[in-house]
């Protein structure tokens, strides 16, 4: 990596205000100087990337050459029609089609998102719902990136779309009367706070439920049996479910069981019972059943197990599919439990620790999930499998014969095929002796040859799991001899519920220490070259990386922080911002002195000092309602003022997108190519296009 020429005065110096050394004025969205500052920073970024344009274009072209650009989704059968999506080779967005299941009926176009996108710089589909009689399609879309959605309705097959409501939440559920839609509305802080029912035929709209506690969000669902609508209100550690007969959406909602602090539960339905997955007196969750008439009377069905966390349940008329996570292996599994009439397990006692059986894994570690299987009596399950070296594929698993049939796989083109890759799982030793999983993927020939330049990725919050995933874009980095590693740090759910709890609130520092331990283990194992390791984190992962840089600024040669949550203390002190109040159970309420001290001690912006930071590429979005644009902007300004970084500190703000970045796939891939060009330059792998 070579030095970066600065041909103009940095925006951070030009826009400095002596009376506001913390740059809080950037939070004034309506101040024209804010956009002027962001655009000046974008121009500075453009100047930096100008000599890397050839590399950036090569990465982008290589990505396109490896990918199947014309994509047809896997068809799913409902009762009368088969549904699927198609994305043309040159299109950013898909089209949704259907055709009668029986016979050779004509194809019908349900929704053309590509055509709808032409009127907008940004477009994101929130949810799409087909009525049970398959006569109506409803969907929500966000045309700005701020996560406010408009509701549309269309009669099938060829009715004109009608906009029914503006600025609502993304989720939609049809009642089984085929006349009633359920949706959510936000409160003033963009918290999904209420559920409404709407009869489009006569525009009758009524509120079904409103959540008053500002730490709780409302979500919508329907049991797989399609007999019950479920309204779930939940904070980060407590939940409460209400059910409504799906055939009678005018009936009052019934509370399954009143909320108890620290108790999370979810509901599904089968036969005469509700199936309750919960953590009451069971920190790793257990499965109970309750009669429909007395949903608060829970009876144990599958007990608590120390070595496994139960993550999800899917009911069928024949039994259950449980998603469970092995703590020691940090591996997800699907467990099939056959049930007889009522609750009886076929020849298996409900008190046995492991009834039923696990479905086979294609390899380990890997991702395994139940795919779309809407038929409640289906005995051929659709499974979705992938890993760091296995492209996404869909398998049909026959429960009766055990036969597995490949339905679809993601094709990969070009010179670097998945069979040339290898994945390794390391176990780094943390600062307190805990063992942290670290996954590494690289070309097999490179991994044999010695320490590699490495990109280390992490997230570590909300119990989110970083199960292995295949990436076509990643192949560009691997083809340049770079290793890609994932630190499965505490705060995520990779080793189950205990792993999450050990990295939140008063234990949050474990996440940062684990990330650094993963970095050091990669070097100690001879996989990574210590002077050439870059870090990547997005959103809460940006907090992870930002805090790690403050702890050990010389551990990395570069860092990419994408929409990073770095102004943690100030954000958590402002309950009027979206997300803040709902986040108290994740980070703590700064009104409590102990919580405030903890947050202050790791918040990246509050701990910046004149240290030898690495090169940093910061990315923000103007319409981001989760992590406001000013968080990466303030970090950029203050790091630039410190002038202690060993390389460039850059900021790019997308003025037309939100938290998830660009909505069109080609723009998203271009953004990815720019990030990778920065990473390769900082790792010294940019070849002839390196700046000089």
From TrEMBL:
Domain of life: Bacteria
Listed Pfam families: Peptidase_S9, Peptidase_S9_N
Keywords annotated in UniProt: Hydrolase, Protease, Serine protease
Domain called Peptidase S9 prolyl oligopeptidase catalytic: residue spans: 469-683
Keyword Hydrolase: yes
Every Peptidase S9A N-terminal domain range: 20-409
Keyword hit for NADP: no
InterPro entries: AB_hydrolase_fold (IPR029058), Pept_S9_AS (IPR002471), Pept_S9A_N (IPR023302), Peptidase_S9_cat (IPR001375), Peptidase_S9A (IPR002470), Serine_Peptidase_S9A (IPR051543)
Family note: Belongs to the peptidase S9A family.
PANTHER family: PROLYL ENDOPEPTIDASE-LIKE, PROTEASE FAMILY S9A OLIGOPEPTIDASE
Name recorded for this polypeptide: Oligopeptidase
Native source species: Salinicola rhizosphaerae
């Amino acid at each position: 990596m070579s030095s970066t020429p600065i041909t103009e005065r940095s925006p951070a110096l030009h826009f400095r205000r002596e009376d506001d050394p913390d740059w809080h004025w950037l939070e004034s969205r309506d101040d024209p100087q804010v956009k002027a500052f962001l655009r000046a920073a974008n121009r500075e970024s453009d100047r930096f990337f100008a000599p890397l344009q050839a590399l950036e274009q090569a990465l982008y072209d290589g990505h396109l050459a490896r990918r199947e650009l014309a994509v047809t989704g896997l068809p799913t059968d409902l009762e009368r029609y088969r549904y699927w999506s198609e994305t043309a080779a040159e299109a950013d967005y898909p089209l949704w089609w259907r055709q009668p299941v029986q016979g050779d009926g004509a194809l019908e176009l349900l929704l053309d998102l590509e055509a709808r996108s032409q009127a907008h710089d940004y477009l994101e589909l929130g949810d799409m719902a087909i009525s049970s009689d398959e006569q109506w399609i409803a969907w929500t879309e966000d045309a700005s990136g701020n996560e406010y959605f408009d509701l549309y309705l269309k009669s099938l097959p060829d009715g004109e779309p009608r906009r029914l409501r503006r600025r609502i939440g993304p989720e939609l559920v049809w009642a089984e009367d085929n006349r009633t839609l359920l949706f959510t509305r936000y409160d003033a802080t963009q918290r999904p706070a209420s559920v409404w029912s709407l009869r489009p035929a006569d525009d009758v709209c009524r509120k079904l439920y409103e959540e008053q506690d500002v730490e709780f969000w409302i979500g919508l669902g329907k049991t797989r049996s399609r007999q019950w609508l479920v309204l779930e209100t939940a904070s980060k550690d407590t939940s409460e479910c209400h059910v409504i007969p799906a055939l009678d959406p005018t009936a009052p909602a019934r509370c399954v069981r009143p909320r108890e602090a620290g108790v999370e539960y979810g509901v599904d339905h089968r036969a005469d019972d509700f199936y309750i997955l919960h953590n009451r007196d069971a920190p790793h969750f257990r499965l109970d059943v309750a009669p429909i008439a007395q949903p608060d009377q829970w009876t144990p069905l599958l007990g608590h197990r120390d070595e496994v966390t139960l993550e999800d349940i899917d009911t069928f008329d024949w039994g259950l599919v449980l998603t469970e996570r092995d703590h020691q292996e940090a591996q997800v599994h699907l467990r099939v439990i056959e049930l007889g009439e009522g609750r009886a397990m076929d020849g298996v006692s409900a008190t046995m620790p492991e009834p039923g059986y696990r479905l086979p894994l294609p390899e380990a570690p890997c991702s395994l999930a139940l795919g779309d299987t809407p038929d409640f009596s289906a005995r051929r399950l659709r499974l979705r499998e992938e890993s760091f070296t296995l492209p996404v594929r869909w398998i049909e698993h026959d429960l009766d014969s055990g036969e597995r049939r490949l339905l679809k796989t993601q094709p990969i083109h070009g010179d670097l095929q998945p069979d040339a890759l290898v994945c390794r799982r390391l176990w780094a030793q943390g600062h307190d002796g805990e063992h942290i999983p670290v996954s590494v993927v690289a070309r097999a020939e490179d991994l044999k040859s010695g320490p590699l330049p490495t990109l280390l990725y992490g997230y570590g919050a909300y119990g989110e799991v970083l199960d292995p995933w295949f990436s076509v874009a990643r192949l560009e980095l691997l083809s340049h001899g770079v290793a890609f590693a994932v630190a499965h740090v505490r705060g995520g759910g990779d080793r189950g519920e205990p792993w999450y709890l050990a990295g939140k609130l008063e234990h949050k520092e474990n996440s940062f220490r684990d990330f650094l331990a993963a970095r050091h283990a990669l070097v100690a194992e001879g996989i990574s070259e210590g002077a050439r390791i870059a870090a990547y984190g997005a959103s809460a992962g940006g907090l992870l990386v930002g805090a790690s840089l403050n702890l050990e600024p010389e551990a990395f040669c570069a860092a990419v922080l994408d929409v990073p949550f770095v102004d943690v203390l100030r954000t958590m002190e402002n309950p009027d911002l979206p997300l803040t109040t709902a986040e108290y159970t994740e980070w703590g309420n700064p009104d409590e002195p102990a919580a405030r001290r903890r947050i202050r001690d790791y918040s990246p912006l509050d701990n910046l000092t004149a240290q030898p930071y690495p090169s940093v590429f910061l990315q923000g979005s103007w319409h981001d309602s989760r992590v406001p644009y000013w968080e990466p902007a303030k970090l950029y300004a203050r790091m630039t003022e410190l002038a202690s970084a060993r390389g460039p500190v850059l900021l790019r703000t997308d003025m037309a997108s939100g938290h998830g970045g660009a909505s069109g796939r080609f723009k998203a891939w271009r953004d990815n190519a720019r990030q990778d060009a920065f990473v390769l330059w900082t790792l010294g792998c940019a070849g002839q296009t390196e700046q000089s």
